[in-house]
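no rush on this but wanted to send it before i forget. theres a chain ive been looking at and ive put its sequence and its fold in token form underneath. please have a look and point out which stretches look like helix strand or loop to you. thanks a lot i owe you, the record is right below:
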Amino acid sequence: EALGGRPPADSVILYEEVKEGNRVVQQVPYVIQRRVIVSGEELIDAQAAFNAQQAEWVVNFRFNASGGRKFAQTTTENVNRPFAIILDNKVISAPVIREPILGGSGQISGRFTAESSANLALLLRAGALPAPLTVVEERTVGASLGQDSIKSGTQAAIIGSIFVLIYIFATYGLFGLFANIAVIVNVTMMFGLLSLVGATLTLPGIAGVVLTVGMAVDSNVLIFERIREESRSGRSVIASIDGGFTKAMGTITDANITQLLTSIILFFLGTGPVKGFALTLGLGIITTMFTAITFTRFLVVIWLRWFKPARVPM
């Protein structure tokens, strides 16, 4: 009668899907009372477990105080009757109440496997969410769109880096050229380290590369401004250059160590794209320290030995 479209006034017909793998092979109908006896908000936890005494997989569940009282009353009044568990208007399980459950916690048993018991526990925990999950918008992103994003990000990184190199050269002249060479060596070393550790360059990784370029330029700017100050104070070329590198070293080291610690924390606490960004940033900081402290100074020393300038060309 109920299946014919005439369920009792206070009831509704819901179905339990019986699956083999991911395929639904049967839908079992149940006549369910419309009133909610215990809601998912009153469920504290549900976990799959193996009952060694019965040699079977079960699902242990636990209610809060309010849910425990309601469940105790219901199970006392409905022994040997099924108790339906509903999620999104579908019956996910309908175990038979064997005895009153008075402690606020209980156990669902049946012909469970390890996988099916874990799935039921997961569904029970999902039902404990305080709000229903509603699909507002669904999008499928193809591989071509992802590739377009990578391509656009790479182009933006290259264009941005070129503008930075042009600006540094226009501002510091010959020393800007040294800085640009050091930045190119810096990025090359970083890509080499990424290849060495087997990392894949993603869109967040590209952002890390751009940030590395900015940090490398910033380190050189600190050095060159110090050299300019020393030169304006009347010191010789060699003294100005040596003083510039020496006095900027502390600031560069402190700034890079701080950022390196941040990238380490991001790498170990983050996931997915955050880890990729943190790895690229961390390797970039290491290469930046090397090029700023060693390589740029090497280029300047070679220039001093070959040309023996009378003044600092900045």
Summary: The longest strand covers residues 23-33. The two ends are 95 Å apart (CA to CA).
